[in-house]
Request: fold
Amino acid sequence: MTATSQPPIHQSWVKNLNKFLGAQGRRKEWLADGLDMHPSQLSHLLKGDPYPALTPALQKRICDLVGVPQDMIFGDPTPEPEPEQSRNPS
Reply:
């Protein structure tokens, strides 16, 4: 993983959130407004920046606004299969 890439859990919850927002026809600006945060703060959160922190309370607020259970957005991601590496016969 490079210094700029995000860990899989980050990619997973953001992907899930985007899926639910899209299905509801909602935009990230709507979510930022509902969370009482500036859209730029939400952008930092979605990029995985350390501020604002993704606390359990904030996770609950996000899910309450979107109207889905927490595990639907923040549940454990299904592990990605490791790519097979070719083995060189010795």
Notes: The two ends are 29 Å apart (CA to CA).
